[in-house]
């Protein structure tokens, strides 16, 4: 993760600014469904892994919704879409940040979905951070915006929500704030001091 991290160095301080690889987790549990999905930082983007059991074989819409309210799955709001885009698939250039396409359940009867992909739009820091938002599994397949209907470009016609879970911190346990322990004004002061004492 070093490419995405910054080191602030002055004559008085060396701050190591949140460079550890972050992992988040969401539990998807409902009457029929049981699973855990993890999101781990890699240099290529967030690796999304885990397995979910409980739905018949097929594709089911899989999104990050904008709110971390899981009073009901509907309370988690719309797809996380900070750029005001239309709905799309995970590999589309125009998509909601939260558009993760579908997960495929396989098997007869009670199916299992083994999830493993890397997505370079969702993140665990910055503007596209999905931390504190909600992972939602839908009852139908997401048409990825290609369904030729109005809903297609907002929800992908994925139907109602069968399970949802808030995306929370798994590791590290240390603070995730992007701020350093030193405020910018203090940093500027220290930089000025180092400049003065240089001669
Ligand atoms: C969900 O799966 C986990 C791990 O396999 C298991 O420990 C847990 O008891 C299951 N929960 C439910 C509600 O079935
Ligand atoms: Cu959704």
TrEMBL record:
Residues in Superoxide dismutase copper/zinc binding domain copies: 33-167
Catalytic activity, as annotated: 2 superoxide + 2 H(+) = H2O2 + O2
GO molecular function: copper ion binding; superoxide dismutase activity
Cofactor(s) the protein requires to work: Zn(2+); Cu cation
A Pfam family it matches: Sod_Cu
PROSITE patterns attached to this UniProt entry: SOD_CU_ZN_1, SOD_CU_ZN_2
Residue ranges the record marks as coiled coil: none
Signal peptide interval: 1-19
InterPro entries attached to this UniProt entry: SOD-like_Cu/Zn_dom_sf, SOD_Cu/Zn_/chaperone, SOD_Cu/Zn_BS, SOD_Cu_Zn_dom
Entry EC number(s): 1.15.1.1
The record's free-text note on cofactor binding: Binds 1 zinc ion per subunit. Binds 1 copper ion per subunit.
Leading EC class: oxidoreductase
Keyword Magnesium: no
Nuclease is among the record's keywords: no
UniProt KW keywords: Antioxidant, Copper, Metal-binding, Oxidoreductase, Signal, Zinc
Its job: Destroys radicals which are normally produced within the cells and which are toxic to biological systems.
Family from the record: Belongs to the Cu-Zn superoxide dismutase family.
PANTHER family xref list: SUPEROXIDE DISMUTASE CU-ZN -RELATED
Protein name in the entry: Superoxide dismutase [Cu-Zn]
Source organism of the structure: Helicoverpa armigera (Cotton bollworm)
């Amino acid at each position: 993760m070093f490419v995405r991290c910054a080191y602030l160095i002055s004559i008085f301080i060396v701050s190591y600014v949140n460079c550890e690889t972050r992992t988040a987790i969401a539990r998807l549990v409902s009457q029929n469904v049981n699973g855990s999905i993890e999101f781990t930082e890699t240099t290529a983007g967030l690796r999304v892994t885990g397995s979910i059991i409980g739905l018949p074989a097929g594709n089911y819409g899989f999104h990050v919704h904008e709110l971390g309210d899981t009073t009901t799955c509907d309370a988690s709001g719309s797809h996380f879409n900070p750029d005001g885009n239309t709905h799309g698939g995970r590999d589309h250039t125009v998509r909601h940040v939260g558009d993760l396409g579908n997960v495929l359940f396989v098997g007869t009867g009670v199916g299992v979905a083994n999830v493993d992909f890397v997505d370079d739009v969702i993140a665990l820091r910055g503007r596209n951070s999905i931390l504190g938002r909600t992972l939602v599994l839908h009852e139908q397949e997401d048409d990825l915006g290609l369904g030729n209907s109005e809903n297609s470009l907002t929800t992908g016609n994925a139907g109602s929500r069968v399970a949802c879970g808030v995306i929370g911190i798994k590791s590290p346990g240390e603070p995730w704030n992007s701020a350093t322990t030193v405020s910018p004004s203090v940093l500027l002061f220290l930089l000025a001091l180092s400049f003065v004492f240089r001669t």
